[in-house]
Amino acid sequence: MQGPSIEFDRVGLALGNTTILEDVSFSIRAGTIHCIVGANGGGKTSLVRSLVGQMPHSGRIAVQWKEGRVIGYVPQTLDFDKSLPITVRDFMAMTCQRRPVFLGVSRSRRPMIEAVLERMGLKGKLKSKLGSLSGGERQRVLFAQALIPEPALLVLDEPTTGLDLSGRELLERAVKEFAAAGGTVVWINHDIVQVSELADALTYIDRTVLLNGAPREVLATGTAAQLFPTLNLPSREAGRA
After folding, report:
1. d(CA 73, CA 69)
2. pLDDT at 112
3. pLDDT band at 226; cut points 50, 70, 90
4. Cα 162 from Cα 138, distance rounded (Å)
5. Structural domain boundaries of the chain?
6. Mind listing the pLDDT tens digit for each residue in 182-197?
7. Could you read off the pLDDT of 96-151 as tens digits, one per residue?
8. Most exposed: 21, 22, 41, 162, by fewest CB within 10 Å?
């Protein structure tokens, strides 16, 4: 699957008299991991929701699809009634079959569902009630659901929230494999060290664009020093030792 390139051209967004985004312009290359970072309330989530068509905006967001037009989207959290008797397998099936889940999960879809759950370390959770899972396990289910049917674009809104170390490692590996296979990843990420190690590019947004480019290059600038006064990135050599 070949992911799309994306161009944000003078994107703006206002809610009432409050300006959320103003003159946001940058590009995302196809087949790369592009992280969006910034202060809380700076407009990151509003920008990606605009990208997936959930919020109105001014300016232009151009997605140049190469093949397929499927978007996998992982929000920060899953809001649902935990008393609902829905299983993990049923929840997964909602995105990959047309018939209602209460009529059963299609036999043709079961191998795909089982494979992606195993990939995220959830093989034994197929028949578990969604409401019985821990917060980290639900985040992994959300990520697994975003991978079916196979997307060309993966949009992640702080998906590592609530994940333990093993969960983070599983997600990181899945993201890297997805991009290596040609998919495009747009990832809101608050862990700047993780960004410096995984991302091909980062964009810092606080209502408008303050930093944009290759992580190691832009994080060495004076602007980055003001935005991240305590940042001390490990060297790549140390990471490989």
Report:
1. 13
2. 83
3. very high
4. 9
5. 1-70+153-182+191-241, 79-149
6. 999 999 999 999 999 9
7. 655 555 555 667 667 888 888 999 999 889 889 988 988 888 889 999 999 988 89
8. 41
| Residues in CB range of 37: below 8 A, 6 or more apart | 44, 188, 189, 190, 192, 195, 202, 203, 204, 205
Amino acid residing at 204: Y
As a whole number, mean pLDDT of residues 62-89 equals 84
Helix boundaries (H) for the chain: 44-51, 88-93, 110-119, 135-146, 165-180, 192-198, 215-218, 222-227, 236-240
- Greatest CA separation for the chain: 59
The values of phi and psi at residue 144, to 5°, are -60, -40
Mean pLDDT of the chain: 88
Q: What is the DSSP string of 119-165?
A: HTT-GGGTTSBGGGS-HHHHHHHHHHHHTSSPPSEEEEESTTTT--H
At which residue do the structure tokens 């821990």 appear? 134
Question: Quick one: angle between helices 135-146 and 110-119, nearest 10?
Answer: 130
Please report, for residues 94, 140, 171, the alpha-carbon distance to residue 160 in angstroms, rounded to integers and kept in the order given: 23, 9, 8
Pick the CATH number of 1-70+153-182+191-241 from 3.40.50.300, 3.10.180.10, 3.40.50.2300, 1.10.3210.10: 3.40.50.300
